[in-house]
Specification:
The protein is an alpha/beta fold. It is 31% helix and 18% strand. Strands 3-4-7-8-9-10-12 form a seven-stranded mixed sheet, covered by helices on one side.
C-alpha cells in the first residue's frame, strides 16, 4: 500500500525532476538507521573483488557520484557511477525523459549529462567508497578525439574504484556505437590497455555493449575481448528496437526505450 501511494505521487512528477529529487533526498536527508547485513551465501567473487551480494546499481542513476555511499547502505552489492566525461556537459535538450505508464517503460535521451571529470574526481577522493565502486566512462559529445577522452578518464579514475566500465553503447551520443565496429573497437582497446600498462594499473576493465548488435558483431566483440584479455563484459545498455509494441503515444519521442535496467558481468 505504501509503495502504491508513493508511486502514484511520483508518477505525477516530471520523470527527470523525480530523479533529481531522489538524488537530493538520498544525499541530504536519508540516514540509514538499520544497515543491511547480507547472508554469507550471497557473496560472489568477480573481477578480483568480493561482492557482498550480486545485486548492484547500474550507471545512469548516480551520474555525478553523489550517493554511492547511500546505495551501499541500502544493501546494493555494488554501485556504478557515471557515465563521466572529461569536460562537464549538459546533455541533450529537455524534455529528454518520458514516462510511458501504460507500457511500464521509460524513454530517455539524456546524452551523458554530468559535472565532468575534475569535480567528480574530487568528490570521490573526498568520500572513499565503503563497497564495490565501478566508474563508467565515456567521451564528450563534441570531442575531437573520443579515444583520448576514454584514456583521460581512465588515467584519472583507475586508482579510485574497483573497476572501470568503458561505455560504447549509449544510443544518445551520436555515433558512439561506431566503437562496436572491428577497427574502432581495436583502436580503443589498444589505447586503454596501453595506458593501463603505462600506469601499472591493476584495475579491472570491462566494456558495456549494445543489445542491438547482430550475431556477427557478437562473435567479433567476444574475440576481441579475449584477445585483449579484458576482465569482463557488461550486458547490456538499452535497446532502440522495442517501441513498435508500445501503446503510449510518446513512444516515438526518442529512439531509446528502457523497460528494465539489467546489468550482468561475464
Amino acid at each position: 500500500m505504501n509503495y502504491q501511494i508513493i508511486n502514484s505521487f511520483i508518477n505525477k512528477l516530471d520523470p527527470e525532476l523525480a530523479h533529481s529529487l531522489a538524488i537530493q533526498f538520498l544525499k541530504n536527508l536519508y540516514i540509514p538507521l538499520f544497515p543491511s547485513k547480507d547472508d554469507e551465501i550471497l557473496k560472489i567473487n568477480i573481477l578480483g573483488n568480493e561482492f557482498l551480494n550480486p545485486i548492484g546499481l547500474a550507471s545512469g542513476f548516480d551520474k555525478n557520484a553523489e550517493v554511492y555511499d547511500k546505495m551501499f547502505a541500502l544493501g546494493f552489492g555494488f554501485a556504478e557511477v557515471g557515465t563521466i566525461t572529461p569536460k562537464p556537459q549538459e546533455g541533450n535538450l529537455k524534455p529528454r525523459v518520458f514516462r510511458l505508464i501504460e507500457d511500464k517503460a521509460i524513454i530517455n535521451r539524456l546524452g551523458f549529462p554530468n559535472q565532468g571529470l575534475v569535480k567528480i574526481k574530487s568528490r570521490i577522493e573526498t568520500k572513499k567508497a565503503a563497497g564495490i565502486l565501478g566508474i563508467n566512462i565515456g567521451p564528450n559529445k563534441d570531442s575531437a578525439s573520443r579515444i583520448d577522452d576514454y584514456v583521460e578518464c581512465f588515467k584519472n579514475f583507475h586508482n579510485l574504484c574497483s573497476y572501470i566500465c568503458i561505455n560504447i553503447s549509449s544510443p544518445n551520443t551520436e555515433n558512439l556505437r561506431n566503437f562496436h565496429e572491428q577497427d574502432n573497437l581495436r583502436k580503443l582497446l589498444t589505447e586503454i590497455l596501453n595506458i593501463k600498462k603505462n600506469l601499472s594499473s591493476r584495475t579491472p576493465v570491462v566494456i558495456k555493449i549494445s543489445p542491438d548488435i547482430n550475431d556477427a558483431d557478437i562473435d567479433m566483440i567476444c574475440k576481441n575481448i579475449l584477445e585483449f584479455n579484458l576482465d569482463g563484459l557488461v550486458l547490456t545498455n538499452t535497446s532502440v528496437k522495442l517501441r513498435e509494441n508500445l501503446v503510449n503515444k510518446k513512444k516515438k519521442r526518442n529512439r531509446r526505450i528502457v523497460r528494465l535496467s539489467y546489468q550482468r558481468y561475464l
